[in-house]
# Entry
Amino acid sequence: MKDSRNEIAKYGITFGTALSIAISWSVNKSVLWAIFHGFLSWFYVIWHVVTR
# Structure
C-alpha cells in the first residue's frame, strides 16, 4: 500500500496544483497563467483567498 501511494505522489498532480489551475483559469482564462500558477500550487491558492 505504501508503494502505490508513493507512486501516485511521485507522478501525479496534487490537489493544490489542480485547485490553483482551476482558480487561475476561472480568473484569467489563460493557459500560460494556469500553468504558472499550477507550479505555485498552494501558494497561489492561499494568495487568491487572502486577496479576494
Q: What stands out?
A: The chain has a mean pLDDT of 88. Residues 2-51 form one domain.
